[in-house]
């Protein structure tokens, strides 16, 4: 397996023989790395301390536990942990030990001008009073510890890099212990060092906000320290690069695919970092920026970036109702501190500023609120697993098996979830040692981004549940009826919305997917769902109240386009091809004539006359003429043009008529213009007063 690493690597006309280091993309490389790193661990710790930490072979110690207090305290190395190639060590020195180490270091590396402070790393993500104060003694101790550990490793085996390492010293001058691990920046502040300064806002720098963990002594449950969390710069960079990758690769991809990629990317970030996200203002800004970019990418696909055409309902509506089902972290209030002060000190939040905003006053639910924080997950997990152990004991005592009813309330809880115990492969999974490190090493040989590299559903269970998010989102967008107002639903003539199923693609798309297609055909297939989406939301996307653009009438129809939206134009022309608009108009006129024919006596009609209609009449909007003419058996009373709901119609005794005409016009409505009665009254007044429209009598509608 190790011989595999000395291979010839070819790329185009270049050739390289790998003679140094591990190629992480090879199978079993994670195992070799772990085995190799075990040698590094032994060299760093020394054999005696290594066996103290590991414990006797027959009864190994738990992770970061010792057999007894004396063993723990007899050596400066108190905790040791290595994550792949990052080593975390906690030393505790007495004054003599520290003095001795610094002296040995300075004898070999004299520092007459106190230059050790220059180039000593610090955690700049924290406010200044929370960073490490670079006092001469502490800096020398940090340098000395690094020098000591570096010398324990032969350079042929491994090297420690000063620039990417950080040594945090906790001393009388430095109350904070700082480190970063697996993408989290952590700052531990012991209770005895907390200055209880509570500012006017309520919670000061010691306030237990959402992004901190209370660290307890397991024995007496005393709160000993607080760990404050942030997301580190690498974690933010990874997220930003993934979103950029999604945007770069979304050339002719469907809108739903772009939204899906954003969703998995966001869930991956939020379920991993959880409460740390809220305390990292830069990341909140980045989330707003990225969510905006994803939406802009979809808008550009429709050739418009106008906010009024794309209210939140278009993006966040679940897929079952024709939306994109996007998840949101951008509609959030970003906590702000007074900038001059916050650079210096952790003074707490003084004000907020809005993330994404929009014209509608809807409050879009925030994904963070639907994911339990890690702290509450851990506490819940302890409780749930303790309960499970009791129930299992009880069941064994009664000589019965545990049933689903026993575990119903704990089924989806705990880390790992209780339900992982009841899957088919549970026995084989027990032998799947080292799966987590293998998951991480997959990135080197699987050519796909995996936002859930840190977990596995079989081992951990599903660590999030977003069912409530969907229902709250529908509620926030105005309920199902409110959402469907924005769509073509009223034009489909469905009696209820419950029959709508959007997830099923049409048979044509499914059958074409597996055929050999040219690139042009593939991109054409991708456009079908986009067209379906655009057509469904066309009443909102092509709305009348748009502050720019000129109304353009589509050929042979009465549809007006407000601005250029090519995909929608193609769809509408396709639907109304072969003079369909004209035919619909004619058939409605015929239907009206038949209805009047059946109701001659009830309506006191003598004869119904269908007027000859010009072929272009149905889509000529600047003038009009009558379609049906009714002759009365007796004279009809006629009122002035009024709205349907007006209670007092004014019927004049003088205005009686024997002729009454009907002018039927087809209009394609949109979200802003569906007030038919006012429109009809306005058109009556327009057409009867202009010079081009000719009607057989002054009375009609």
From TrEMBL:
<dbReference type="Pfam" id="PF10596">
    <property type="entry name" value="U6-snRNA_bdg"/>
</dbReference>
<dbReference type="GO" id="GO:0030619">
    <property type="term" value="F:U1 snRNA binding"/>
</dbReference>
<dbReference type="GO" id="GO:0000244">
    <property type="term" value="P:spliceosomal tri-snRNP complex assembly"/>
</dbReference>
<dbReference type="InterPro" id="IPR027652">
    <property type="entry name" value="PRP8"/>
</dbReference>
<dbReference type="GO" id="GO:0030623">
    <property type="term" value="F:U5 snRNA binding"/>
</dbReference>
<dbReference type="InterPro" id="IPR012337">
    <property type="entry name" value="RNaseH-like_sf"/>
</dbReference>
<dbReference type="InterPro" id="IPR019582">
    <property type="entry name" value="RRM_spliceosomal_PrP8"/>
</dbReference>
<dbReference type="GO" id="GO:0097157">
    <property type="term" value="F:pre-mRNA intronic binding"/>
</dbReference>
<dbReference type="Pfam" id="PF10597">
    <property type="entry name" value="U5_2-snRNA_bdg"/>
</dbReference>
<dbReference type="GO" id="GO:0071013">
    <property type="term" value="C:catalytic step 2 spliceosome"/>
</dbReference>
<feature type="domain" description="Pre-mRNA-processing-splicing factor 8 U6-snRNA-binding">
    <location>
        <begin position="441"/>
        <end position="599"/>
    </location>
</feature>
<dbReference type="GO" id="GO:0005682">
    <property type="term" value="C:U5 snRNP"/>
</dbReference>
<protein>
    <submittedName>
        <fullName>Pre-mRNA splicing factor prp8, putative</fullName>
    </submittedName>
</protein>
<dbReference type="InterPro" id="IPR019581">
    <property type="entry name" value="Prp8_U5-snRNA-bd"/>
</dbReference>
<feature type="domain" description="RNA recognition motif spliceosomal PrP8">
    <location>
        <begin position="1"/>
        <end position="68"/>
    </location>
</feature>
<dbReference type="GO" id="GO:0030620">
    <property type="term" value="F:U2 snRNA binding"/>
</dbReference>
<dbReference type="Pfam" id="PF10598">
    <property type="entry name" value="RRM_4"/>
</dbReference>
<feature type="domain" description="Pre-mRNA-processing-splicing factor 8 U5-snRNA-binding">
    <location>
        <begin position="236"/>
        <end position="371"/>
    </location>
</feature>
<dbReference type="InterPro" id="IPR019580">
    <property type="entry name" value="Prp8_U6-snRNA-bd"/>
</dbReference>
<dbReference type="InterPro" id="IPR042516">
    <property type="entry name" value="Prp8_U5-snRNA-bd_sf"/>
</dbReference>
<dbReference type="GO" id="GO:0017070">
    <property type="term" value="F:U6 snRNA binding"/>
</dbReference>
């Amino acid at each position: 397996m190790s011989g595999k690493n000395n291979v010839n690597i070819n790329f185009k006309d270049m050739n390289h023989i790998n003679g140094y280091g591990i190629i992480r993309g090879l199978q079993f490389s994670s195992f070799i790395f772990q085995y190799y790193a075990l040698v590094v661990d032994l060299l760093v710790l020394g054999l005696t301390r290594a066996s103290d930490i590991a414990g006797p072979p027959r009864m190994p110690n738990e992770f970061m536990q010792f057999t007894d207090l004396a063993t723990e305290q007899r050596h400066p190395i108190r905790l040791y942990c290595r994550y792949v190639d990052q080593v975390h060590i906690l030393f505790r020195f007495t004054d003599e030990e520290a003095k001795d180490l610094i002296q040995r270091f300075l004898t070999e590396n004299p520092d007459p001008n106190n230059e050790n402070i220059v180039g000593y790393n610090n955690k700049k993500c924290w406010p200044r009073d929370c960073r490490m104060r670079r006092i001469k003694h502490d800096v020398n101790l940090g340098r000395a510890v690094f020098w000591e550990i570096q010398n324990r490793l032969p350079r042929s085996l491994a090297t420690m890099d000063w620039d990417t390492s950080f040594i945090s010293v906790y001393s009388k001058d430095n109350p904070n212990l700082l480190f970063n691990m697996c993408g989290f920046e952590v700052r531990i502040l012991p209770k005895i060092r907390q200055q209880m300064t509570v500012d006017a806002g309520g919670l000061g720098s010691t306030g237990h906000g959402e992004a901190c963990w209370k660290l307890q002594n397991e024995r007496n449950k005393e709160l000993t320290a607080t760990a404050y969390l942030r997301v580190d710069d690498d974690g933010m960079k990874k997220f930003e690069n993934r979103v950029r990758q999604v945007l770069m690769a979304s050339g002719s991809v469907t809108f739903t695919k772009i939204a899906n990629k954003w969703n998995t990317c966001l869930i991956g970030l939020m379920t991993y970092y959880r409460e740390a996200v809220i305390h990292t203002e830069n990341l909140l800004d980045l989330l707003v920026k990225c969510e905006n970019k994803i939406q802009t990418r979809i808008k550009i696909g429709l050739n418009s970036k106008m906010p009024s055409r794309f209210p939140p309902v278009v993006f966040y509506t679940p897929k079952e109702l024709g939306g994109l089902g996007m998840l949101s972290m951008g509609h959030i209030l970003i906590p702000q501190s007074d900038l001059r002060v916050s650079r210096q000190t952790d003074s707490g939040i003084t004000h907020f500023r809005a993330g994404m905003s929009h014209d509608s006053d809807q409050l879009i639910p925030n994904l963070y609120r639907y994911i339990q924080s890690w702290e509450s997950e851990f506490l819940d997990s302890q409780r749930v697993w303790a309960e499970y152990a009791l129930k299992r004991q009880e069941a064994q005592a009664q000589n019965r098996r545990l049933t689903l009813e026993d575990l119903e309330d704990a089924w989806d809880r705990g880390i790992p979830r209780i339900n992982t115990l009841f899957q088919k492969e549970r026995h084989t999974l027990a032998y799947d040692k080292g799966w987590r490190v293998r998951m991480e090493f997959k990135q080197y040989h699987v050519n796909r981004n995996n936002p859930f590299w840190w977990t596995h559903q079989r081992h951990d269970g599903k660590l999030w549940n977003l069912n409530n998010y969907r229902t709250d989102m529908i509620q926030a967008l105005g309920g199902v009826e409110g959402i469907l107002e924005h769509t073509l639903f009223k034009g489909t003539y469905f009696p209820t919305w419950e029959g709508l199923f959007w997830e099923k693609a049409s048979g044509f798309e499914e059958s074409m997917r597996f055929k050999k297609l040219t690139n042009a055909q593939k991109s054409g297939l991708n456009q079908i769902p986009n067209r379906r989406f655009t057509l469904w939301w066309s009443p909102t996307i092509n709305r009348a109240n748009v502050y720019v653009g000129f109304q353009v009438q589509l050929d042979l129809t009465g549809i007006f386009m407000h601005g250029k939206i090519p995909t929608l134009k193609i769809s509408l022309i396709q639907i109304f091809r072969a003079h369909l608009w004209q035919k619909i108009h004619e058939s409605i006129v015929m239907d009206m004539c038949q209805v009047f024919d059946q109701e001659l006596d009830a309506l006191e009609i003598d004869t119904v006359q269908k007027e000859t209609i010009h072929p272009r009449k149905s889509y000529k909007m600047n003038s009009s003429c009558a379609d049906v003419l009714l002759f009365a058996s007796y004279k009809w009373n006629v009122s002035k043009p009024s709205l349907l709901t007006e209670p007092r119609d004014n019927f004049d005794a003088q205005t009686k008529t024997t002729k009454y005409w009907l002018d039927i016009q087809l209009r394609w409505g949109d979200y802003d213009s569906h007030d038919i009665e006012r429109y009809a009254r306005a058109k009556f007044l327009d057409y009867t007063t202009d010079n081009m429209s000719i009607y057989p009598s002054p009375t009609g509608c």
